[in-house]
Design goal:
Structural class: mainly beta
Helix content: 10-25%
Strand order of the largest sheet: 7-8-9-10-11-1-2-3-4-5-6-12
Strand content: over 45%
Distance between the termini: 52 Å
Number of strands: 21
Low-confidence stretches: 1-25, 335-342
Number of helices: 4
Largest sheet: 12 strands, mixed
Order of helices and strands: HHHEEEEEEEEEEEEEEEEEEEEHE
């Protein structure tokens, strides 16, 4: 125990010495943490850039090449996995296509950025301050570029914390570390090379995998409009409790590749973290399961309703207690029909 405490204290001391005084950095840049995050959002969507990054998670480490271009406000993006089976993700506006080495294609007709760190982007980063403490913590260096470090620490027990390293010149994200409440790393994303602001050739934005498509699946999701969309006969399922600050932003329905039954999904975000809730008619032999892998918690529970038994699954960057509470709060809209095919 003493060794662990000493190690953590030493780590924090080393980190403090490395990144220096937050007060000095704020004075040097004149920008607050929220302003840096706002700049990151803008840079992420408006700049041309390409490079390579690593994504370290509970299952191992992935190396990924990224190319991002913006023309007349239209974003285009391509990610290529550099290790393991060949895989590419190509985005043109809101249309996202995933292609594997067997030429199996999945098209998302309304997708978000396929980037793993797309989740750090909020329409209003300043709103994060309601549920996180934001602090400019100092300076560092990533991929040969000068970086500003922003600490994002949760104000409650329902979410994790982040170290966000931003390119001082462009505000682009250079490194993201996801931390649990003990300050232990759960995931890390870090650029190893990055070039910003140059023209991107068309050839770098199209899929390189050739040959006829073996299979193709299209997934259409519906963006949730808080002002206009209300739960109704076609939206029977809803979540009665989510951690403060999380809002529903998308819902869709597709068929499980295993059971072939319809699965309804509801996606939530607080502007930084995210989770999804899946509801399907209880498959044969389905059981309740709790699984944690790094930052991802998966909580599955069979619940009984008047219309029968259903399998409720919550998956996301949440502590277990929060995932369980969310799952247990799933309800059917009173008086509506069950929207899941049994």
């Amino acid at each position: 125990m003493k060794k662990r405490c000493w190690s953590r204290a030493t780590s924090w001391l080393a980190f403090s010495l490395l990144i220096g005084s937050s007060g000095n950095i704020l004075a040097e840049t004149g920008l607050s943490a929220a302003q840096w995050l706002t700049g990151m959002t803008k840079a992420f969507r408006e700049l041309n850039y390409e490079g390579q990054f690593i994504y370290q998670h509970s299952q191992g480490l992935n190396s990924i090449a990224i190319t991002h271009s913006v023309t007349d406000g239209q974003e285009r993006e391509r990610l290529v996995f550099l290790d393991g089976p060949k895989r590419e993700v190509v985005r043109d506006g809101n249309k996202v296509v995933c292609i594997n080495a067997d030429n199996e294609v999945i098209r998302f007709e309304r997708g978000d950025s396929p980037l793993a760190f797309g989740r750090v982007l909020s329409e209003n980063p300043g709103k994060l301050a309601e549920h996180y403490s934001l602090k400019v913590a100092g300076k560092g260096r990533v991929a040969g570029r000068e970086a500003v470090v922003v600490l994002v620490q949760p104000k409650d027990e329902f979410r994790y914390g982040y170290e966000i390293w931003l390119d001082e010149a462009s505000s682009l994200l250079l490194k993201l570390v996801l931390l649990n409440r003990k300050g232990e790393m759960l995931e890390r994303l870090q650029f190893t090379s990055l070039e910003v602001g140059h023209e991107i050739p068309e050839t770098k934005l199209v899929a390189s995998l050739k040959g006829s498509v073996k299979s193709e699946k299209v997934i259409v999701s519906k963006a949730y409009n808080k002002a206009n969309d209300k739960p109704g006969d076609n939206e029977s399922w809803y979540v009665n409790w989510v951690p403060p600050g999380f809002e529903l932003f998308r819902r869709n329905q597709q068929h499980s590749p295993v059971t072939k039954k319809a699965v309804e999904s509801l996606m939530y975000t607080d502007g930084l973290a995210g989770f999804s809730v899946f509801v399907e008619a209880k498959p044969t032999n389905a059981v309740s399961v709790i699984k944690r892998e790094g930052a991802i918690t998966a909580f599955t529970k069979v619940l009984s309703f008047e219309q029968g038994e259903f399998l409720i699954t919550v998956v996301g960057e949440l502590p277990l207690a929060a995932a369980e509470r969310i799952a247990m709060s799933v309800k059917l809209q009173k008086g509506s029909a069950v929207s899941i095919s049994q």
